[in-house]
């Protein structure tokens, strides 16, 4: 029986969890700390490419710097037998892509909750100058308690991304806006656009732009025609539908500029009013308590 492969004398490798264009993700076990991990390994065929190694290092630094509850944690990174690797938090759940592949649209409350978690993570990332640039169902992973975390910062842009790479088109075309495909530099709004496309897909169980041919896909995105969400899902409340459709607007001036703006628009007006009322009531009570304390002191 062949002994399991061990990276850096510490991480025992198991089966393959997933494969991408430049790396595979393996099940792993941290023998030092006695915990499950996921290990992302560059393929040998691309490990010698400086650009690929640079992107891999960017992923490790970007995710590790965030330390956010809705971002998959990075535990370690290194090189083993010429192959670069990143050791990641091992989540027991599946991805949103897996859930959608099983069939059926998701309930509106679930999609809204997913959007909240992702927007919380994106807000933290954007505040640190990090753009994810590849938000899609496969990069949204479920936790054991039903929340989600975003993964794969492999094409992220941060302050230390080399300038020569800044204006190149990274990401998955089906989740990119037309102006980005045309060559506009990446912005935080692109991540929010991609999340809108993901939410549309989660609510309808179909791609917003299903064209398989890249040319036809680019044309469809450029045209920007979408069947309205409320036509496909009459049960969706107007606030959620408008938030998603605004984030996917063909005109970038209509899109959300920040994750906080998009998150604030998710609630129906009645819920926002109730929340505002609760806050005002709490402030009023606090003011009365302080006033009473001042009178006692006098």
Condensed summary:
The protein is of the alpha+beta class and 298 residues long.
Tell me the number of helical segments per DSSP (H or I, 4 or more residues long): 10
Q: Which class of secondary structure composition applies to the elements?
A: alpha+beta
Unreliable segments of 5+ consecutive residues? 162-169
Number of strands: 8
**Ends distance:** 83 Å
Overview of this protein structure:
This protein has 298 residues and is of the alpha+beta class. The protein folds into two domains: 6-89, Phosphorylase Kinase, domain 1; 96-267, Orthogonal Bundle (Transferase(Phosphotransferase), domain 1). Helices cover 41% and strands 16% of the residues. The chain contains ten helices and eight strands. The protein has helices spanning 50-66, 96-101, 108-127, 178-181, 188-204, 214-223, 229-232, 238-247, 259-264, 269-297; strands at 6-7, 11-19, 23-30, 35-42, 74-80, 83-89, 140-142, 148-150. The protein has a six-stranded antiparallel β-sheet with strand order 1-2-3-4-6-5, covered by helices on one side. Strands 7-8 form a two-stranded antiparallel ribbon. β2 and β3 form a beta hairpin. α3 (108-127) runs antiparallel to α5 and α5 (188-204) crosses α8 (238-247). It is globular, with a radius of gyration of 22 Å. The N and C termini lie far apart (83 Å). 34% of the residues are buried.
């Amino acid at each position: 029986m062949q002994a399991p492969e061990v990276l850096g004398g510490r991480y025992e490798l198991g089966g393959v969890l997933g494969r991408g264009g430049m790396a595979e993700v393996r099940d792993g076990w941290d023998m030092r700390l006695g915990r499950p991990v996921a290990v992302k390994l560059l393929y040998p065929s691309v490990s010698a490419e400086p650009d690929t190694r640079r992107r891999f290092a960017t992923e490790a630094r970007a995710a590790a710097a965030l330390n956010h509850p809705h971002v998959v944690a990075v535990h370690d990174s290194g090189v083993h037998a010429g192959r670069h690797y990143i050791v990641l938090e091992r989540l027991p759940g599946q991805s949103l892509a897996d859930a959608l592949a099983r069939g059926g649209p998701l309930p509106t409350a679930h999609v809204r909750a997913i959007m909240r978690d992702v927007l919380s993570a994106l807000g933290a990332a954007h505040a640190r100058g990090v753009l994810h640039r590849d938000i899609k169902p496969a990069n949204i992973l479920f936790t054991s308690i039903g929340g989600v975390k975003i993964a794969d910062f492999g094409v992220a842009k941060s302050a230390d991304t080399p300038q020569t790479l800044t204006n190149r088109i990274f990401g998955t075309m089906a989740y990119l806006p037309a102006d980005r495909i045309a060559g506009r530099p990446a912005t935080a709004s692109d991540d929010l656009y991609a999340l809108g496309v993901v939410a549309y897909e989660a609510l309808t169980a179909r791609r917003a732009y299903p064209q398989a041919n890249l040319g036809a896909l680019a044309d469809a995105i450029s045209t920007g025609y979408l069947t309205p969400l409320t036509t496909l899902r009459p049960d969706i409340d107007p606030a959620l539908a408008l938030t998603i459709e605004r984030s996917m607007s063909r005109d970038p001036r209509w899109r959300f500029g920040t994750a906080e703006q998009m998150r604030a628009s998710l609630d129906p007006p009645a819920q926002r009013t109730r929340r505002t009322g609760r806050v005002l009531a709490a402030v009023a009570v606090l003011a009365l308590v302080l006033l009473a304390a001042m009178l006692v002191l006098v």
